[in-house]
Amino acid sequence: MNDSQRFQGFADTSGRFFGELALHNDRAWFQQHRERYEQGWRAPMLALLGEVRDRLGRTYPGGALGEPKVFRIHRDVRFSKDKSPYKTNIGGMLVVAGAGGRSGVEVPAAVYFHVAFEEVFMGAGLYGMDRESLQRHRVALLDERRGGDLGRIASGLERKGFTLAARESTKRVPAGIDPAHPRAELLRLKGLVAMSPPIDRRLLARRALVDSLTEHARTTAPLVRWLLRNVA
């Protein structure tokens, strides 16, 4: 890997570009400043995820991590009252290529990294699940062996400062399940991701961010592997 492919840091530690974009969220401003986004944020995100992927080569036996993906900065405004055309953040992720085998089923992210003017975080897992995936997830959670494994993984992550979350959750456990079930909180979630402890923004401009993200990804790998076996 030559220096041009290595992560050398994002444009700055504050996400200043996204703060300015929030104030001038229109096509004319973005086109004038597109190079700042492409060179200061998108290219470094690809380089960062590429290096993390290479370091995680032995973490997911039997499945190679796919190419880094950076999400489009353009917002889907078709069904939104807010017609601002651009997102004021950047997000990128790595998924396990060829995982699962069920047609159309989303596979867990081994790494999702997000930078905005207000926040920086890393997560891993499935933020949301379709109906069939959620059903498989809950069946596995209720199984004493498989669910017990996930319970131990979840407890270990929480002890290390990770937070378990999902796009949606229910107020109660699914019908017919004892509210005192040992995995009641997990059963309420309609997805499952582990969110890292706070990431020091100063790392955004340093190569040390590669080490930090790799460490977080290795810590969350047991959760991702459980989802690959039981949901994806």
| CATH class term | Alpha Beta
Which consecutive residue ranges, at least 5 long each, have pLDDT under 50? 101-105
Question: What CATH architecture label applies?
Answer: 2-Layer Sandwich
Helix count, DSSP H or I runs of 4 or more residues: 6
- What order do the strands of the largest sheet run in, or round the barrel if closed? 1-2-3-4-6-5
- Radius of gyration from the CA trace? 19 Å
The general outline is: globular
How many extended strands? 6
CATH superfamily annotation: Protein of unknown function DUF1054
Please state the average pLDDT score: 92
Return the domain count: 1
Query: Approximately what portion of the residues adopt beta-strand conformation?
Result: 5-15%
Task: Please describe the biggest sheet, giving its number of strands, its sense, and whether it closes into a barrel.
Answer: 6 strands, antiparallel
What's the order of the H and E elements? HHEEEEHHEHEH
Q: What fraction, in percent, of the residue positions are helical? A: 40-55%
- What CATH calls the topology is BirA Bifunctional Protein, domain 2
